[in-house]
Amino acid sequence: MAIHLLFLALIPALGWGMMPILSKIMGGKSEEQLIGTTIAALLFGLIFSLSQQVTYQTVSFIVCFLSGVFWAVGQYFQFRALEKAEVSKAMPISVGTQLAFVTLISGIFLLEWTSFFVAMMSIVA
Hints:
Structural class: mainly alpha
Number of strands: 0
Largest sheet: none
Shape: globular
């Protein structure tokens, strides 16, 4: 694997990990932090779609739009939580529940668990 692809794959993880810290440093209300995060995500998405010649279909656009709406609501409540709690206390809970629910949802609803062994290893991991 080329090293530049590895760095490209790490961009979302680095951004997601640095976002709560940067939002706490920058200050502002939850709404302002959400607008800033949304604008940054929009710009990144536009740059990516223009550089990769992405085609859009109606159903995919609607699904992605709804996903973005749910993301914005969750992000807003995360920023609200960070107003009341410290980043070092709130983020492990947030990230831990995301990992647990993504594992369960992908295994149960997306049928990614092909055997009992795979399901057990996924839950244990």
